[in-house]
Every structure is written in C-alpha cells, then in structure tokens.
Amino acid sequence: MSATPGPRIVSVRRERLQRWLATFVERHGAATVRASGSRVDLVAADGARAEIAVPFPPLAQPDGGLDALVSHVDQTRRVGVILARKGGFAVGIFVGNTLVTSKVGSGYVQGKTKAGGWSQQRYARRRDNQSKKAYGEAADEVARILLPEQSSLDAVVTGGDKGAIAAVLADPRLERLAGLVQPGVLPVVDPRLRVLEAFPEAFLSVRIGLNELA
C-alpha cells in the first residue's frame, strides 16, 4: 500500500486570502468550515481540503465562518520582530507593514577551521565566545527596543537561525516577552535592514496545508 501524501504547504499573502478562498470554492465546490482558535479547516464538495493556520491566534470568532477569518487576518497589528543569525541581528517594531523603529547590528564570528587537536579546540572556544558576545548584543537591543513597548505589542515574531534565536531569547530579561513570541522561526538568510523591512510579507502571510485530490 502506498502512503497517503501529506498536504502541500502554500503561503498566501493576507491581501490575497479572500480571493484564494473564493477560488478554492470555485474549483472544488461548496466547502464545510470547521474552525477553532488556531486553525480553520475547509472540506470541499469534491473532497479537497485546506488546513489554514490562524496567524496571531486565537481567532476571536471561530463560529463566524470565513468572513471572521479574513477579518482577523486583515487587522493592523503592532508586532515586534527579532532576526538573528551568527554574526548579525535585527530588531524592530512594525505597525502593519510599516517599520516604526529598528536596530540592525553585526559582529564577527570566526568560520570553522579544518585544523585538529589543540588548534581546533582553541578555534571552537573562540567561536563560542564570539557568538555569545553577538547574541548578548542582540539581546541588549531586544531589551532596549521591545521591553518598553511590551504592553503595546500584539505579538513578537522571529526569523533566522533557530539556535541563534534561542540563544538571544535565553537572556533572563526577555522572559517577559515569552507570552508574545509566536511559534516557529521564519527563514531569513541575512538579517540586514532591507531584509527586516521586507519581513512583513513573511510574518503576515497565511500558511495553508492544501490537499487536492487528483
């Protein structure tokens, strides 16, 4: 027996969500809607399914149908952003798509060496120290920019390297943000200012698991 294929993951920009939903129904027929605070499932007449992850949960009106989902997605939110990788970070606050405050920084982290023995251990210690310093600087900026605005933030989203984000958020000062940090670390190659400015396209998009029958 062949395994049932999993859903194909698509990312839909929030301004296109309403049209995407309408197209799904046009292609597959009237859909049954099942919703919770964190997920909306569509099951169409032909058996096609769409599993929609609610961004910035919970969905306030799970029984409000697709209109409630679109209204939830369209809300303008005040969102803190933390991007981090070895050697670089970016911190900012967005209102909707607009970056209203930010700080971008970089620090040197030595590359890996092919040397062995004592030299390899020395390089490893040096890299660890450089990484700790870079993550400490990032945590300082997160504390400076986001903590004073904590009560006004709807959420905090992260991007970059999972290990780097974990290291930054391990700073005890940032425990106050734990309830705002959204699950998952979005992919970011290089946390520069232009990348930060474009980041809303990623964190405001809606992730959908799509299973269309052949």
Structure description:
The protein is α+β, with helices and mostly antiparallel strands. The protein has 2 domains: 8-75 and 205-211, no CATH class; 78-203, eRF1 domain 2 (Nucleotidyltransferase, domain 5, 2-Layer Sandwich). The chain is 32% helix and 30% strand. It is built from 6 helices and 10 strands; from the N terminus they run βαβββαβββαβαβααβ. Strands 1-10-4-3-2 form a 5-stranded antiparallel sheet, with helices on one face. The protein has a 5-stranded mixed sheet with strand order 7-6-5-8-9. Helix 3 (117-145) crosses helix 4 (162-169). It is elongated, with a radius of gyration of 21 Å. 24% of the residues are buried. The model has no long low-confidence stretch (mean pLDDT 88).
